């Protein structure tokens, strides 16, 4: 503990702490112990201990602080500085890579506000002109101005978005057809679409997927990109508009020129993106697989349809053949039946003739139904006419039955009785009138 003696003349400072005023002598009857505290005492003690001057201590402390900040951010915000970038002209701030200036090249549009703030602090501690001068370096503040401009752009959401729109270093070059054919389609093109997806108004952006993605997922992916709604603008590349109010015509001319340039670049970017999606679609093996499956399905349906039509045609042909066969069999049967009928008819006709002869013969055997000597010619004609009348009144079956009754009969009286019974039956049936067969009356 250090003891300070109170009682020495001390200057009394004014309110602005800038100049001493009237000196007054302060005395004390006793000594007071004062404890040394605060950063100024620590700096004083450090200088005394290490025997440094104020400038030497400031320089060494600046180096220590830079080293400390670098150690704290070594794992997250740390990348080598390009000598060409360190020698950039601060006036050409539009041509500089703001992310590279702050050491955020690997993050770019993904860098957070906190990362930007810490990167700015780290760069300022390292490249502040005063620190460089204290370290014995040059007092050139050109790169320091680049750092300040990069922080200004990236800390403003509007300006940062304008810069991100034109940040070609964040773009991923589409792979060639040869590179894609090596089996790296999803890996290479996935990075391309991820980089392009930062410009989408609609978030989240669908992923490219892999070879196991379903057809609806793949169709949704390409529909999203063919209807891509981009917020990308190109104000960052505008020609600077004059700030003077005297040349208003020139100012309006430059503004119109910038607007036309933006529209042209927007159109070109839309065409570029459309071609990019077309190229990816043409190289996507899943599209070929889906088309082959659709083609196979169409062929399957067509083959099934053709098979069904063939089967129906075969069944129709078979049915027609069966019908023709049945018809032929029926025709054969009809012909056979017709032939048989004809034969039967002929046989029946022949049998009827034979039966008629038998019946007529029986009339002759019965002496023409005359009892008492030989029958006269008139009696014979009358008996034969009556016999023919009976034959005409009965059908072949009845004729056959009558013939069966007469077969083997020799007795005239018995034969005549058979005829009388036949006439009686015909009369009863209404086929003959009573007394119509005169010889049998």
From TrEMBL:
UniProt keyword annotations, A-Z: Chaperone, Cytoplasm
Biased composition (Basic residues): 250-265
Annotated Pfam families: DnaJ (PF00226), RAC_head (PF16717), ZUO1-like_ZHD (PF21884), Zuotin_N (PF26185)
Transmembrane regions: none
SUPFAM superfamilies, A to Z: Chaperone J-domain (SSF46565)
Biological processes, Gene Ontology terms: 'de novo' cotranslational protein folding; regulation of translational fidelity
Principal localisation: cytoplasm
Skewed-composition ranges (Basic and acidic residues): 337-348
Any one Gene Ontology molecular-function term assigned to this protein's record: ribosome binding
Biased composition (Acidic residues): 71-82
Subcellular location: Cytoplasm
Protease as UniProt keyword: no
Domain of life: Eukaryota
Start and end residues of each J domain: 97-167
Chain spans, region Disordered: 63-84, 238-269, 293-323, 337-358
One Gene Ontology cellular component annotation held by this UniProt entry: cytosol
PANTHER family from the UniProt entry: DNAJ HOMOLOG SUBFAMILY C MEMBER 2
Protein known as: DnaJ-domain-containing protein
